[in-house]
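Hi R.,

Here's the chain you asked about this morning:
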Amino acid sequence: MSTPETQFPILIITGRPAAGKSELIDFLKKCDTAERLHRFHIGEFEELDDFLYVWETFEIDDILTRNGKPRIWTDEKYFFTDNWIWNLYIERISLEYRKKLARDPRYHDRMTTLIEFARGGEKGIEEALSYLHEEILKRARLIYIRVSYEESARKNRRRARKGMEDSILYHSLPDSKMEFYYKTNDWEKLEARDPKYIEVKGFKIPYAVFENEPEKTLDPVQIGNELQRVTTRLLND
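And the predicted structure, written out as tokens:
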């Protein structure tokens, strides 16, 4: 008698902009479900990506401007006027997740939740994780997709598609925003504290690093092999 495959309840996928997060998720969408479950321990899944909230913020502020009202969160060049909004986006992810659990307490019997965000700054990733709800933290594992800032900036420019600025796969930031928000991040500090876990509010989140420089996320074979390595490690932690 065969035993059921193990499925992750929650995977947090983070890294710099254009590191390969959305490409990884797109790869998973195109996988056969049975193979995806067997190789990567992800069967059916749903995404919670804070880029959708970022873009919504820009749209709302533009609507206010057109109607002669003051903008709330951004200036006319779409720089945030209050950086706490990054934490608001994480609160919204937590809220959407808790709604899923409220509708179906056995949600994870059938579903993995993929949580995606990019953060920069001296405490960007650590702060974002601290705003996730305990219901997420107690179930989560984390994949960090590692690329240098220079590689992130290069790929950010490459993926830009005119007219598709609101697209998950093809949105792109101006170089000025990339440098302002993402020139540095705090991943190496988090990694240096513990080689296997990130502790957040008393919860120990297993993590693994997807190495994406040289780039693997354009080649389905390479992305599959690296993802299998990463998720196998996470399964055993």
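The domain at 10-236 is CATH 3.40.50.300 (Rossmann fold).

Let me know if you need anything else.
M.
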